[in-house]
Amino acid sequence: MRRGLAIALKDLRLRIRDRSAFIIGFVVPFGLAGIFSLTLANADEGSFSATFAIVNRDGGQAAAGFEDLLRSLDFVTLRTAATAQQAERLAEDGDVDAAFVIPAGFSASATAGRGGEIHVIADPQSDVGALVARSLAASYGSSIDAVQLAVATAISEGAPPSEAAALAERAHAVPTAAALDRNTTASQLLSSKTFFAIGMTVFFVFFTVEFGVRSLLDERERGTLARLLVAPLRPSWIVGGKVGAGYVVGLVSMGTLVVATSLLLGADWGAPVGVVLLMVAGVGAAVGVTALIATLAKTPQQAAGYTSLVTVVLGLFGGTFFPISQASFLSGLSLIAPQAWMMRGFQDLASGGRVGDIWPSLLALALFAGVAAAVASTRARRLIPR
Fold first, then answer.
1. CA angle, residues 373, 375, 377, in degrees to nearest 5
2. Is the pTM of this model over 0.85?
3. Beta strands across the sheet bearing 119-122
4. Residues 151 and 71 grouped into a single domain
5. C-alpha separations of 329 from 10, 226, 306, 316, 324 in Å
6. What is the average pLDDT score of the chain?
7. Over the stretch 61-76, which tens digit does the pLDDT of each residue have?
8. Residue among 346, 371, 375 at smallest CA distance from 361
9. Does residue 350 sit in the same domain as residue 246?
10. What whole-number distance in Å separates Cα of residue 263 and Cα of residue 255?
11. Do 193 and 148 share a structural domain?
């Protein structure tokens, strides 16, 4: 055991001297996380705004309700236009993203169950603003349809048609069956700072730990492995020492990045106990997978190439650079990558989850680590000449 530890300490000293562990394990992932966070800082801060104009030629209750809806939206700046022609000029000149024209008789027609129209005039250069305007008009139209349906149902059940207006007012006053709690839903979304801090940490830990078994190939190529075999050392001690050095470097790298991104970038990793457990399991999976890939090579150069290729593919596939939850097929298939399980576990914690929520990720990572390490250990011993 002490001899294996001595080998691990020797490899750690070599790794620290060439500064590669510091660059790959901290500088590059922290730098990329910072760049991505700054570049996409406004993507999750609700910075969208739109300027709309409205021409209310009706003045009735239904038209007033739509105007009140627009004024209640915090991302909308509402301007009043006198005529439809003025509203159209504002949209064509780009002064507003879109304009709404409510014709005379809209409220009376909607209340009587004959329907109505809200005309939307969009700025041709404002795709998003125009889409939001059409969605708002369609949404309000749906609520009018619901009121009309309620009034028609009441009349069919015996209510006098003369009370249609009063019935419409009562229908408008009925609260919605379900409402969106924006405070709650917002708290479940990861900020760009947190997502990229997690993604870059998970992605680069696989590069940080891969030198363990690869150094075995380095020593065999340089002839220093023969000197180790002259000493009373078991092959398992040699392999264990080198893998252990990679594990320690990976764990230190992840821990440093968690602390640094939290303090300097404002990332929120969630419950510390869960983060530590995921780090321990995740680094183990990274060591096992990269070690297995390295044992498939015959030279250190091949090992580096194989490991880099597989790590990049699995990292992209595992969602370390961009979320893949919207692609249902890839979302399920990506779980063959340990990076996907690490991302899932860290994101669960960062979105307010508890330690109990990450047990599936921990078990999956433990399975990756155990199977890959067992196969890699067997193959690594074959690299040691008898």
1. 65
2. no
3. 76-80, 50-56, 98-102, 119-122
4. yes
5. 45, 49, 26, 15, 9
6. 78
7. 778 888 888 888 888 8
8. 346
9. yes
10. 13
11. no
Q: Which residue has the higher pLDDT, 242 or 326?
A: 242
d(CA 291, CA 380): 8
| Whether residues 258 and 308 fall in one domain | yes
Domain count, the chain: 2
Containing H/E element for 140? helix 127-156
* Whole-number pLDDT of residue 33: 87
Shared-domain flag, residues 244 and 124: no
Q: Which domain holds residue 348?
A: 2-42+189-382
* Same domain? 174 vs 212: no
Nearest to 236 by CA among 382, 372, 369: 382
* Stretch (H or E) spanning 229: helix 224-230
78: helix, coil or strand? Answer: strand
Q: What does the alpha-carbon distance between residue 143 and residue 128 come to, in Å, rounded to a whole number? A: 23
Cα separation of 97 and 90, whole Å? 9
- Integer CA distances (angstroms), 261 to 22, 34, 67, 197, 254, in order: 15, 8, 44, 6, 10
Report the relative pairing of strands 98-102 and 76-80 from DSSP bridges: unpaired
DSSP H or E stretch at residue 155: helix 127-156
Give CA–CA dist 199/208, Å, rounded.
14
Amino acid at 48: F
CA distances from 341 to 173, 274, 294, 345 (A): 47, 14, 22, 6
- Count helices and strands in the chain by DSSP H and E runs: 18, 4
Would you say 217 and 299 are in contact if contact means Cβ atoms under 8 Å apart?
A: yes
**Residues facing 100 on adjacent strands:** 54, 120
Distance of alpha carbon 198 from the chain centroid: 9
